[in-house]
Design brief:
Length: about 325
């Protein structure tokens, strides 16, 4: 089962200069290369004038129509699932079907902006992603919904609850907190930057290309599961290999808009039922923050899945499905 990427992180680093040893099964193929930073990235182009900037900002700040998959159940309040950073709705196929089976609720799984099949935009903040979610709920005619988000998706769900509490009937936040960042993914900006700059020979097929990129990422992403997860974003288009995720926007917006939660910019409290579900082996929900969390989400309950890390739904799927079903059933 594909797993969602971890969210919280650290300051962005600059372009990486990595020497890659491609000896092995594909050493006889044309070698991929890591593209040097462009003139635009180096800051040689002058900025647009103020009228153009106003138009671009207004367009960039508008909600986008999110791609989604519906798994039909009964007519009660639906469950909306939001994936994590560099994930997509496809990562949640088996879990969403299992939850429909166990709860009978209809489930919608959404692609966030700049992910999966949703539109690419140059800007990406939790307020914008929350407004995308709220716009989706209105477009589907829902008066409210149960929203469950993992990592980045969990913070999007929290932001939506604080912006428009009436639309969020119940909140489930998976292995993320409104406070702090985890130290466990300090390399995220580095390997996003490498992914941006990889160029692959067009004659490779997709399995071959994924094999080559896997070898290139190995020095900075030693965890096999993380590399496999990242590679679900790679696909072959008519004009060559591309990434489903908008890596340019993610790299630009990661610090501070994605790696931290803008609690100071979001109003008041969310007083609806809220469940924080963490992996017992993860450091993303610090138990010392529980009382602070309850100041913002006063009806919070906390659950920790034994033997699970950040990807609790992939590490312990049966236990995860059972717990979520008992909460929302």
């Amino acid at each position: 089962m594909a797993a969602d990427m971890k969210l919280a992180g650290c300051s962005c680093s600059g372009p990486v200069d990595t020497v890659v040893d491609l000896r092995g099964p594909f050493s006889r193929l044309s070698r991929p290369r890591v593209r040097p930073a462009s003139r635009t990235q180096r800051g040689f182009l002058s900025p647009p004038d103020s009228s153009v900037l106003f138009f671009l900002r207004r367009k960039a700040n508008a909600p986008v129509a999110l791609s989604f998959e519906k798994i039909a159940g009964d007519k009660r309040t639906p469950l909306i699932i939001l994936h994590g950073l560099l994930g997509s709705k496809n990562n949640w196929k088996s879990i969403s079907k299992a939850l429909v089976h166990s709860t009978s609720r209809t489930v919608y799984v959404l692609d966030a902006r700049n992910h999966g099949e949703s539109p690419h935009t140059p800007t990406m903040t939790y307020q914008l992603m929350a407004r995308d979610l709220i716009a989706f709920l209105h477009s589907e005619g829902f008066s409210s919904a149960i929203v469950m988000g993992h990592s980045m998706g969990g913070r999007t769900a929290m932001a939506a609850a604080l912006l428009d509490a009436a639309m969020i009937r119940e909140l489930l936040v998976l292995d993320i907190s409104p406070f702090g960042v985890s130290e466990s993914i300090s390399t995220l900006p580095r390997f996003v930057e490498m992914m941006r700059r990889i160029e692959l020979p067009s004659h490779l097929n997709l399995p071959q290309a994924r094999k080559v990129v896997d070898e290139m990422l190995l020095p900075i992403v030693p965890e096999t599961g993380v590399r496999q997860f990242l590679l679900t974003n790679l696909y072959k288009a008519d004009d060559g290999f591309k990434w489903k995720a908008n890596l340019d926007a993610i790299s630009l917006c990661f610090n501070p808009h994605i790696c931290t939660f803008p609690l100071d910019e979001l109003p008041g409290q969310y007083e609806g039922p809220t469940s924080f579900i963490g992996g017992a082996l993860s450091d993303y929900i610090n138990k010392r923050d529980i009382e602070r969390i309850r100041e913002v989400f006063p009806r919070s309950e906390f659950h920790f899945v034994e033997g699970a890390g950040h990807w609790l739904h992939a590490d312990k799927p049966k236990e995860f499905i059972s717990l979520v079903s008992s909460i929302i059933k």
